Amino acid sequence: MSVKAFELVPAVERELLMGDKARINIECIECCGKHLYVGTNDCFIHHFLLEEHATTKGMLSYTVQKLLFKYLGLKKPVEALKAASALERIIVLCDATISVVDMITLEPVPSGGAKIKGVAAFCVNENPVNGDPFCVEIGVISARRRTVQIYMVYEDRVQLVKEVNTPEQPCAVSLDGYFLCLALSTQYIILNYSTGAAQDLFPYDSEERKPIVKRIGREEFLLAAPGGLGMFANAEGISQRAPVNWSESVMGAAVCFPYVVALDEGFVTVHSMLDQQLKQTLSFRDGHILQDFEGKVVLASTKAVYVLVPLPLERQIQDLLAGHRVEEALTLTEGARRNIPKDKFQILHKRILQQAGFIQFGQLQFLEAKEHFRTGQLDVRELISLYPLLLPASSSFTRCHPPLHEFADLNHLVQGDQEKDHLYVKYMNVRSTEGANGCREDVDTALLKLYAEQDHESLLDLLASPNACLLADSAPWLEKHHKYFALGLLYHYNGQDSAALQLWVRVVNGELQDSTRSDLYEYIVDFLSFCSNTDLVWKHADWALRRDQTIGVQIFTKRPVGQDQVKEQKDQVNPDDVITYLGKHSQALLLYLEHLVLGRRIQKEKLHTHLAVQYTDRVLSLLSQSPTADQQVSVARDKLQLLLRESSLYRVQLLLGKIQECDQLFLERATLHGKLEEHDKALHILVHQLKDFPAAEAYCVWGSASRDPAYQQRLFHLLLAVYLDRDLPSSTGTGELEMAAVDLLNRHGEVFDAVRVLDMLPVGWSLQLLRPFLGRALRGSMHACRTSQVALGLARSENLQLQHDRLKQRRSPVLVSEKKGCVLCHNTFSEPDCVCLPGGVPVHTHCAAQRVVRDSPTRRQLPV
């Protein structure tokens, strides 16, 4: 995939360099800042000044001024030039000899010691290990021996510091720190001249192709490998980058990050170091020198010098984006991080991500687009603005300039394709608002409009959560799309509960059509039950109750109650006011009273009596109907009976007076007599009028609940007496009552006093009938007797132990004084009488007595 990364710009034309001398060729070049040095085959060094300037089209060009040229007097080609700017010197290789000349005058250094002879090639260590800033370290290949020598070049002398032997004759060298990267006759190696450690890299044939050894960074080198590959290797001999695939005939290479530039016989190729792809090819004939100097790539033929001017990375990235080559653009952007200041890079990176996101958005690659939008911190309004009329009229948003995309709006994107339209809208529906900081009103209002138009379920989620939707913009839009429930939620969020309720009531009444919620009536009731505005509650309660009393009363039953439960507090209604208000809604009133009495357990006589009266009137009303609804009567009576049994706060005489004349409510009358402690009347009703013996027994159990055993025994004896009373007229047969008495004794024998029962029973009764009762009574009596004997024995044992302890304590004196305290009550002794505990500890006599009674094993064994 091609991209224009460089432009070839002429620097030194032939005429300026050699005039009309046709046989002069360029042998080497060196560039230091604006200064360009050219070495020729006629032993001259030419010094030029390069001035950069931009053309009217924004392109870079050079103005060249020839400052000086110098003949070295050796009649040999100048093979290599290296600038030492700190020394203001040029290191020259000519006729296998390294000499040093002045950078300005090109005059040789006067000292005779600044020469090295027998040199095949040399390089400058751009990562020197010597800390002297006025010294240049160079690596020199000896032309006569298989050695590499390390020299220190000073302003007026050179000094040999190290000589390293090599297994073969070196052809090319590059130096970084202590590491020498060498091209030998048959292979590349990396050699540490400090430790002598060597690392073989890979083989090659120096006779077939020219070796290339190029330092590209700290401890990293670029090498020309077999197969037309440009291989990268670090000081450990490891390749951390994939190779670039250039031609077999490469004669020179340079690096201008993130590109590798290679020169062959007819072309200049540009490969990316990031993805190793060929990015650009330039035609260039007769080229034979390619070098980079501080980021400037200089190219030379035999007659002229050119500069490969890199296009700005931002322009390259924009060209890639224009071709929708998103991944390449992002890769190049990441690679440019090291060459761009941090603040500028962050701005550039965000914009590139946003542009890439829009390209992928247009290609329906929504997941990738969303990730780029998130990482690039896109202003969500850029995306929303694609959809016509979504942004509120009050929004001050304007699209980014230059624009991030080429789309006018969503219609331009879909171009009539309904399927695409659906996909784009779906994407915008799920679009998060992470980039909405500072523009929440615009974003939320736009989302509301989109959700309403597309009938999306997220509309209610948006309105039910904290949002910044503009009411003035949103309300007409919701009305347009008949989203009245959602509009009510928006009114509520903006504190306009009255408007919300009026709107919802119209929907329930059928005046407005909105199918969002089929249970809107129930929702209104629930809303009113938690509404803090009690005026609104009273205003709409009648409408809710007239529609359905069972549901409408929940307005009051679901409302919270404070600690005192009935006292009116803020945002609450007084139960007494509710009861008065519900007077015209009997069913709702009954439900509300049940809620207060049975649900919240409010202990208030007025409420309990009111509920009991409501139950009673309901039962009497059902009983008076013809025909009687047995099922309804049964349910109503069960509720009344439960309240009569469980509550003790209602006015008994009032209820008794209401049902006194009703012959069908004997059980309720019996319960009321029981509340008045008139157990004989209650039992008489149950036995002689209802003839319900199980109910009579259940009455005794109920009446004696939470009472002492004596009270329970009295009730059961009273029931037995009713069964055995022959003086009372009864329609129940004597035999039936006697059998009920026998069953009572046999089932609840443990409650009765056996002696009293035997006195009450008729003389003629068979003992066989009372066998279960008598057996249980006998066992109980024997158990009590034996328990008493065990308790007596324990008491005697305890007394004997105490007497033994007393005799034991008498043998030793017990000291008691007014200053000494009792360990049980912690009071001092006021008299000499005391009791000694085991161990000789004195305590008050009354304290000891209390302890004995409390801790005595006899007391623990005796029944209470």
Automatic annotation (TrEMBL):
All copies of domain CNH, residue ranges: 23-297
CHCR repeats by residue range: 563-728
Short name of any one Pfam family annotated for the protein: zf-Vps39_C
GO cellular component: cytoplasm; membrane
Lineage: superkingdom: Eukaryota
GO biological process: autophagy; endosomal vesicle fusion; intracellular protein transport
PANTHER family from the UniProt entry: CNH DOMAIN CONTAINING, TRANSFORMING GROWTH FACTOR-BETA RECEPTOR-ASSOCIATED PROTEIN 1 HOMOLOG
Official protein name in the record: Transforming growth factor, beta receptor associated protein 1
